[in-house]
Specification:
- This protein is α+β, with helices and mostly antiparallel strands.
- It folds into two domains: 260 residues, Aminopeptidase (3-Layer(aba) Sandwich), CATH 3.40.630; 112 residues, Alpha-Beta Plaits (2-Layer Sandwich).
- It is 35% helix and 26% strand.
- Helix 1 packs across helix 9 and helix 3 crosses helix 9.
- It starts with a helix and ends in a 7-residue tail after the last helix.
């Protein structure tokens, strides 16, 4: 159903509240695994909005259950509260030329603000629904958070979840309909090292690691249908001083794919490279530090119905055609377990994952419109 006059008035009246949510949350540091203060803020916000069963769980998700019984079907709506930056002190927040600037201001604070405004309409008006709804301000979406928040929600509610919607990104017209999986590793090389002059000729861990990186970059990525697979070395470190043959060096390495089969093939390739270097006598330590799953076996018709609901709302609210893409989001978790899931946008911004990230605060009105319009799919006829 389309937005009613009452809904539209509520959203317009709430636009300033959405901006204020962004202002408030950006004051609260929330690196992955340390979202306690933002989670408590969201918990209090849900309660003030009329939520009856509200709690912060062991994964630091702020959860609000609405019309949830012991066994009814559920739909989950979530947006993450963690930031990609490790800062534990408040980060700068600047309002300039009609934009908000702050790390994490769009990803995902702006999206969360739009979602909270849409959810408040349901809570305040005790809207009858056709299923239970679980509203989540979730933890650990970014980086090495490894989707801890969404994993906890899917583990708790399991197959009762019939549809799962996460709100993320910088574009209101995009629908993420598939999961990019990834494996991430810390790989450490150790050698005997020594003095750069007196022990010249001993193996240098930096040189060995560099050789390994070069080998990894000669790999031809596997293909599975229309899959896409990538790899990257993002960080290297090691050594002691300019006059020391390095005893240790490490890198952070990842590969990603839209295909489970290709992820497995990349894992086998990495293992072969590691064993080849170990066979030369150097010590190589491998620690998997990240694991994000790909899309699993889905009911394609059920998934397409969910996607179509989002298409209709985007067209109705924005007057634009939606476009589909694969990405790595909190939707990875339900998709990997066969639960229809998508990621939608609730805000417009840019320069995400940089300290120059920006948000167009005016976009929060259309963001909340879009999300509330989509939520009407679950309203019961009265």
């Amino acid at each position: 159903m389309a937005l009613t006059v009452q809904m539209e008035k509520y959203l317009i009246d709430s636009h300033q509240d959405a901006k204020d949510i962004v202002r408030e949350l950006c004051k609260i540091p929330a690196p992955s695994h340390h979202e306690e203060n933002r989670a408590r803020w969201c918990e209090e916000w849900f309660k003030s909005a009329g939520g009856q069963k509200v709690y912060v769980d062991e994964a630091l998700n702020a959860v609000c259950e609405y019309n949830v019984t012991e066994d009814n079907d559920l739909v989950v709506f979530m947006a993450h509260i963690d930031t990609v930056f490790p800062d534990t002190e408040p980060m700068p927040f600047i309002e300039k030329d009609g934009l908000f600037y702050s790390p994490g201001v769009t990803d995902d604070t702006g999206n969360l603000a739009s979602l909270l405004i849409a959810e408040r309409y349901i809570l305040k008006n005790s809207v009858p629904t056709t299923c239970g709804m679980v509203f989540v301000a979730n933890s650990c979406e970014e980086g090495l958070g490894n989707l801890k928040g969404s994993r906890a929600i899917v583990s708790r509610y399991g197959k009762r979840i019939k549809e799962f919607i996460t709100v993320d990104g910088t574009n209101l017209s995009r629908i993420v309909n598939g999961a990019v999986g990834s494996h991430r590793y810390r790989i450490t090389v150790k050698t005997e090292g020594g003095h750069s002059y007196g022990a010249f000729g001993n193996r240098n861990a930096i040189a060995c690691l560099s050789s390994m990186i070069n080998t990894l970059y000669t790999v031809k990525v596997p293909v599975d249908g229309d899959s896409k697979t990538t790899y990257n070395v993002g960080v290297i470190s090691g050594g002691t001083s300019v006059n020391t043959i390095a005893q240790d060096a490490e890198m952070l390495y990842e590969y990603r794919s839209t295909s489970r089969k290709c992820l497995s093939e990349m894992e086998n390739m990495l293992n072969k490279v590691i064993e080849a270097y170990r066979a030369t006598g150097i010590e190589v330590e491998v620690e998997r530090i990240g694991d994000r799953p790909c899309t699993g076996e889905l009911d394609k018709d059920a998934h397409e119905r969910l996607i179509e609901k989002a298409r209709v709302s985007i067209k109705r609210v924005l007057g634009k055609d939606a476009y589909l893409s694969y990405s790595s989001t909190d939707a990875n978790t339900p998709l990997s377990q066969g639960i229809p899931a998508i990621c939608m946008g609730g805000a417009v911004g840019g320069r995400c994952h940089t300290r120059e990230e920006w948000l167009d605060p005016e976009s929060l009105l259309d963001g909340s419109r879009l999300l509330l319009d989509f939520m009407t799919n679950y309203f019961a006829a009265v």
